[in-house]
Amino acid sequence: MTISMDHFTPDLRGDALAVQDMAACREAIRTGSLSFHAASRLLPAKVRDPSLALYAFCRLADDAVDEGDDKVGAVLQLRDRLDLVYRGRPRDAAADRAFARVVETFEMPRALPEALLEGFAWDAVGRRYDTLSGVLDYSARVAAAVGAMMCVLMRVREADALARACDLGLAMQLTNIARDVGEDALAGRIYLPLDWLAEEGVDVAAFLAAPAPCDGVRRVTRRLLDHADRLYRRSEAGVPKLPLACRPAILAARHVYAGIGGRVRAAGYDSVTQRARTGRGAKLGWLALSVLRAGTMSVGPVPSVLHAGPATEVEFLVQAARGAARKGRSEALLSVLAQLEARDRGLA
């Protein structure tokens, strides 16, 4: 694939444009995702820049769907933007051009960003999740897919390493869900497993109408964080399979996000009246810890959990990253996009 430059302004072609695009991506991440920005500073430059381009594209797409008034239109636009990227003619925007360069340079399997697209589409249709497995299905798309793409950027396509990277993505998304219970409820969204809420006697409609940190919601939040902690621990077995220079950044992401979960725990699992935050000092401490741990993780026997199969919900991502995925969009993705197109035309 060769990226067409025909529609770019002549004085912005070539390396100068690439430099400007990367500067825009760095700024988007610096202001939009402090946790990722902090962890990314530990990556070697050859991985850091493409990872920032990847994350900027994903983050801006997420913001458009999550915060915009036209969620349906935002998802359909993202579908079209991905089509252009994979045709080698990205939209005339910094994040799109930078991501197109990543796709070309690293031969990024299309199924991975399209998994992210499917997760955003589920958001746009307001999908809720009856079970933890359903929450993990969603988390696989909006977070574990990014973990798989990060492995591709590190030139790592071994199944065991990919499975553990997806574990980390799942854990981080469960942490995000636990942190944002109140914020999501105010927006009419719920990502906690509905069967867990039912077991606790929580009336979802009443909770969304007047969000409050009742005991049942606290216990469900705790269960979700407990599962995230198990995934964080399992993910660590894959870190030694990554390039040595990349390990501190991945461990930093693990510690920073787990630290957010720790703040939720410290607040008595109340993420309704407050939103857990971590300070600069804590982040610096986790970054230092990650650097120290990265150098010792290859010492000793290989943990048996390294070879555990991928979680059922992320198996398709592992296959895609290894180049074994079926070509073309999945029937599930085509179905949800068709629903959105019908809504966009006022037919549903």
TrEMBL record:
Annotated SUPFAM superfamilies: Terpenoid synthases (SSF48576)
Cofactor(s) this protein requires? Mn(2+); ATP; Mg(2+)
Query: Pathway membership of this protein?
Result: Carotenoid biosynthesis; phytoene biosynthesis
Q: Where are the annotated coiled coils located?
A: none
What keywords appear on the UniProt entry? Carotenoid biosynthesis, Manganese, Transferase
- GO terms of biological process kind: carotenoid biosynthetic process
Q: Which GO terms describe its molecular function?
A: geranylgeranyl diphosphate synthase activity; squalene synthase [NAD(P)H] activity
Q: Where are the transmembrane segments?
A: none
Q: Name one Pfam family in it.
A: SQS_PSY
Into which family does the record put it? Answer: Belongs to the phytoene/squalene synthase family.
- Tell me what this protein is called: Phytoene synthase
Give the source species.
Paragemmobacter aquarius
